[in-house]
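RESIDUES AND SHAPES:
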Amino acid sequence: MNLCGRLALALPLAAGAVAAQAADGIQPLDSLQRAAEAYVRAHVAPAGGRVVVRAAALDARLRLAACAAPLQAELPGDRIAGTRASVAVRCPGPRAWRLFVPVEVHVYREVLVGARALARGETVAAADVRAEQRDVAQLGYGYLTDPAALAGRQLLRPLRAGAVLSPAALAAPTLVRRGDQVTLLAGAGALAVRSSGTALENGGEGAQVRVRNAGSGRIVQGVVQAAGTVAALP
């Protein structure tokens, strides 16, 4: 018998087995798989992504009493570890039971990858990346979707063509550049004293940079707060 013939024979046999299970007062196992998959689809919010959920095959020797009420499902702790989850499917009522169904979850989104090989220290532009669909559930180091987020940022490590660009691979945007005229803040809140200064090095938000005070000529150390603004350290 060829493959098509075997499949044609197997399908009615499988359907007959499910019907026999229900008739014998046994809960069909595929109903548990469907309940687990439906729960995950309804509760995973991929923000524009495509969700693929696959429940694992259950042990065919399981014999659970047929549930007179609709099956209920929950994800204990609302937790998905990477691409795997364990969904608790239960039958409420006098003949109650509960079974954990392993489920694989994949969320596909368009993410930015290198359009060409890029070296450490290169400034990344929109032309240096392209969008490709990837399973973001497996991207533990994060990912980027908007080329505008690059904003002339530099790479902290080399990037291969086709490799996913993670936020950690990019230096913080440079808000103050060497030679820039900046506002130097001394103190805090409403009592902060403002003066002018010249940045002596580049820095992103939170970076420490040296600034020459325009009035006194003194060089002070400060922390970049925003573009053109540095808070002097005490």
Remarks:
- The chain has a mean pLDDT of 84.
- The longest strand covers residues 97-114.
- The first helix runs from residue 3 to 23.
